[in-house]
Amino acid sequence: MNEDLFFWFNSWAGVSPGFDGLWLFLARGLGWFLVIVLLGYLLVRRAAGRGLLLITAAPITAWLIGQILKKVFASPRPFLVLDHVTVLWQHGSYDAFPSGHAVFFAALATALYFFNRRWGGVYFLGALLIGLARVVIGIHWPFDVVAGWLIGFGLTLGLYFLINFWSRKKLFDISDYPMR
Length: 180
What we know:
Layout: H1 2-10, H2 17-45, H3 49-73, H4 78-81, H5 100-115, H6 117-136, H7 142-168
């Protein structure tokens, strides 16, 4: 099923130079754009406290855990094991699982959702597009991306409850900034 889904998504690559450029931007550039916009937003809002802690700690921690899992599972990328893959950008080798981009941006979107639901929704859409594009351009299996989303979401949810628990128990003093 993973292979069938991969070929279905990968069939969207190589259709036209314009669409290929769009997929490449979504896979490689959208993430940088989202991070830069978020940094500007946080500076303007002068974010502090639990919200800022979660927005910074969750994606970084999730990405580090994703990197450890990549070493443990050593999963080959689709273009290494399948014939007739349309590869728009060759990246990595035996480090497909989980998708680091999916882990990072799912964690970021989830953390941001607790801080600001509208922005969180936009970033969930961004995480979805980035993950999808990485399958389309031929460097991830669909399962890599879905697992990355689940890891990023789950870890951030756990950190959210942990930070709120610590804050209520006064285990550390951190200023209260609106976090739902």
